[in-house]
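Q: Two folds, back to back.
A: First:
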Amino acid sequence: MAVSHLMYARSVFQAAQEQGKLTVVHEEIGDFAAAIAAVPELRNVLSNPELDARARADVLGEILGDADELTRNFVLLVAEKGRAGELEEIYRELDRLVAAEEKRLNVELTTAFELSEEEAASILKKIEQASGRSVEATRKVDPSLIGGLVLRAGTLRVDASVRGRIEQLRHDLVRGR
């Protein structure tokens, strides 16, 4: 994580919170970041250093036409500072700040096979109890795990998979433990 991403995220977080617009601004910047990820042409416009700043601002103004004034001003400022190509990373930091404010924990749960809703709910309930936060999870399936699961929450990664245990055993054997 770059310090600048956190700095921009904190700035817009605080401004949105002060104006009572945190939910709206968070959602709009999230939608914009998703658009950057989905539309390569938009990413190219934002990250092209040869594109005139005024032309970039005009494109952004068109895209952000109905957005909240704070969202629009923030995105235009980021673009003016030459960081428009970093909006996805800035949004990830903003999302972390909003999640902490809402006492929400975003996790990625990867399993070797598809879990039933009951199994997934049971695992997520245990995470909620341990963390004291509500949990929102994205679920993935990776058959190469063989069994078990891998849980990622922010920078924390817990590997309780069979593949992870085999790799750890191999590592220990090589090091002579």
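A: Second:
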Amino acid sequence: MTHHDDRPGTDGHARAAFIQEELTALSLAAKVRLIGLPVIAVWVTIENLFPNAFFYYGLLVALALTGWIPLAIRRRAPRAMWTRYAFPLLDLALIVFAVVYPNPLDDNTWPTAMRLRFDNENYLYLVIAMTAFSYSSRAVIVSGIGAVGFWTIGTLWIVSLPDHSLFVTDAAWETLPVDRQLAAFNDPYRVDLMALVRQGVIMLLITAVLATLVWRARLLVSREAEMERQRSNLSRYFSANMVEQLARSETDLSAVRGQDVAVLFVDIVGFSRMSEQAAPERIIDTLRQFHGRMERCVFAHGGTLDKYLGDGLMATFGTPAPGPRDATNALACGRAMLAACDDLNADRQDGGHAPLGIGVGVHFGPVVMGDIGGRQRLEFAVIGDTVNVASRLEALTRSLDTRLAVSGDMIQRVQAESGPDAVAGLSTAGRHRLPGRQSAVEVWIQPAHDCPPAPLPLS
């Protein structure tokens, strides 16, 4: 089993998710500890007479602190990963000390070896289990090995005390008569080495099981973080509703297919001339403001941001999956872009800057969609005559003295989707022959000085 949880090369999104999950888990573990320790305190009170229990009360207070101190450290320094290992080991050392070391407040003179016969090693299993809250299989393994090590040291320390000794070997045990076996078994000064081995094996097996479960949990969290990262990337290109649809879809986007979509181009008029006169910083700032507002229009109307084109952008409606109002939404988006540009120009005039002029071209028709590119970089592309026509319509806005040019095919589709009123404010400008195309295209425009109507309702 390979452990990647502490490697610095782990994906940043997954690493950040684990850090947040670990903080939440540490907080939960600290609360569970505060609930469990009083229960243990009650049991200690039942098992120990006054004032013997005060020795264990001090231990419980120390264990409460070792639960909250690492949480406080991680909140201040989330990447202080050493706390994963140091504090569980400290817990184990405290528990082993409390189990094997004679209580200084207790007056009984029982042999120290008797302290190994009350199953107190069970407390070590709790510490190993609590380490799983770190979401680190490596921390669980360190805790398990630490538990075996501390328990072995404590047991051997007891063996080293005066009058204490180990049980005889299995081979020698079998040669003893039954009365001698019973006497050895009941000898309060003898320590059963095989019991120590059995306890160590069980601790390591439990550690292996928990480490595997934590590793699986990390794998699931990592996959969830990767899916969230992919959704975040998708949200930069698709509207929110499309991201959810894509996340649930079983269709491979790389499959080449054809379908009817609406294509929209928007561009700043005269931007090249403006760039010659403005400072580079001002140019980039203008583009950021413009792209940000245009992008919001695209996503607000259920469109897909296909690509930025310097001082413009291309958007599609009906990709990757077609809808019942793609053309209507595309036209509404184009009108919303005109309104957004007017708002931007109002802000620019307040700042003493020249207003921006834009042109919007929209067409509806068949396209081909699929992944293009090489092995190192792929791009979801929408290509075809429909894309070219939409681009040419945007360029045609200059000669037609309009900000919005729409094809006749687009008008027919909008009317079929939403009725004649959906194209109110647009008028035909006749048929025009576009560069690179043999047949003419009927063009509808919105007069340049008309105030754009409110965006149409969305589907």
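Q: And?
A: Residues 5 and 219 are 10 Å apart (CA to CA).
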